[in-house]
Amino acid sequence: MKGLLMAEREQLEAWLVATAQGDEQAFRKLYSATSSQLYSLLLRILRSPERAQDALQDAYVRIWQKAHTYAPERGAPLTWLLSIARYRALDMLRRKQPEVAMPEEPDRVATLLEDEQSLSPLEENENQQSLSAINACLGDLSDEQRQCVLLAYYEGLTHQELAERMDAPLGTVKSWIRRGLLRLRDCLAEEAIS
């Protein structure tokens, strides 16, 4: 199984290198091998097949343009591709609702806190301020920490699933999550004081 994963990783890396050199056939193969995974992620974030398809197209344009920036020593090729897709989705969400930088609708977050219809305007304002503080603090995390925290929270992935998704050792993923949550806690405490 591990040998198969390494072979897949090496194949994706080879297609990325060829894509960086302008090889359209390698780009088609890369698209064919990875587009369903990127689309699934985009659909979970954007919750609209049309918007997910638009984001997928934008992501692959970006991949074509930026393939030369992929560095194997910094992470798995699929993780790099998923990151590009995720950032495209977040960009789309920000354009739709600039005050929201998290890959969830604010209504869903608000209902997790309290039934939205029972909130007073003051409480709604406080919830929006809380979301803004969380978004600001998420921006202070490293890319790996932010991705682990968001995947664990929004997709409910276990540490082992995160390690597989991120193509990183289990201990490293646990460390990213722990440090990310500690930084979030400290940042939110500072936000509450100011």
UniProtKB/TrEMBL annotation:
Keyword Zinc-finger: no
Short name of one Pfam family: Sigma70_r2
Entries under Gene3D superfamilies matching the protein: 1.10.1740.10, Winged helix-like DNA-binding domain superfamily/Winged helix DNA-binding domain
Domain RNA polymerase sigma-70 region intervals: 30-97
Signal peptide: none
Assigned keywords, A-Z: Sigma factor, Transcription, Transcription regulation
Residue span, RNA polymerase sigma factor 70 region 4 type domain: 133-184
Family annotation (InterPro entries): RNA_pol_sigma-70-like, RNA_pol_sigma-70_dom, RNA_pol_sigma70_r2, RNA_pol_sigma70_r4_t2, RNA_pol_sigma_r2, RNA_pol_sigma_r3/r4-like, WH-like_DNA-bd_sf
Single GO MF annotation: sigma factor activity
Gene Ontology terms: biological process: DNA-templated transcription initiation
Domain of life, per lineage: Bacteria
Record's keyword annotation contains Cell membrane: no
Family the entry assigns: Belongs to the sigma-70 factor family. ECF subfamily.
Protein known as: RNA polymerase subunit sigma-24
